[in-house]
Amino acid sequence: MTCFVSEQWNKMHHNGLTLLFVGITGAGKSETGNTILGRRAFNAHDENTTFEDIGIECCKYKGISLKLVDGPGFPDCATGDLFQRFISKIGATLGHGVDVFIFVWKYGSGFSMENREILTLLKKNFGSDFLRNFCVFLTTYGDYYELEHKEKKSFSEYCSNLVGPQKELIEECRGAVLFDNRTGDVNVKERQMKSLLYLIGKKISHRRSPAFKIPSEFKIVSI
Predict the structure, then answer these.
(1) Alpha carbon 175 to chain centroid distance?
(2) What is the separation of C-alpha 3 from the centre of its chain, rounded to a whole number of angstroms?
(3) 176-203 pLDDT tens trace
(4) How far is Cα 111 from Cα 23, in angstroms, rounded to an integer?
């Protein structure tokens, strides 16, 4: 494992990473971005935000250049026109592509139909292996999780005991990471960043292609 981590760390250090947050409104995408940045830069989107509105901020973590892309939530992801506009905007803005899509889910909120529809849209439009190759599952509200499970069950054990679509998704994404965006504990912040980068490193090492590029002539396939 040490060899693997060192190899992937060197690649990420050399190339940098572009991370795109996706998920439903209120999942914690903007707050997660702010936690990684170490400053407040992203603002949570509301119902008046358009799908063309995206925020891009950059930072470095232990020498790794990170470009974070925050967009609006998917209040009605089954509406193909909204998804079309959002993805087209991403493709036009990030011509070099996206290294990893961070699917953000709020702990304790239930795995709703909206969540499942987002993932179905991604797979239907970008391929059945898209989640396996390009998506990391990130759970927010880690402070709530700790209150319920502290000293009882680790997050990996919690994930192993899940059933249904959420468990299938985590397995397809090759694991999940827990984030507490409210903590002031530097050790917690360090641990969750290392866990996230470890999953990203595994993701990159297991696929053949580099960053995911949106086709210039992308046309939505609705669910």
Answers:
(1) 12
(2) 25
(3) 999 999 999 999 999 999 999 999 988 8
(4) 11
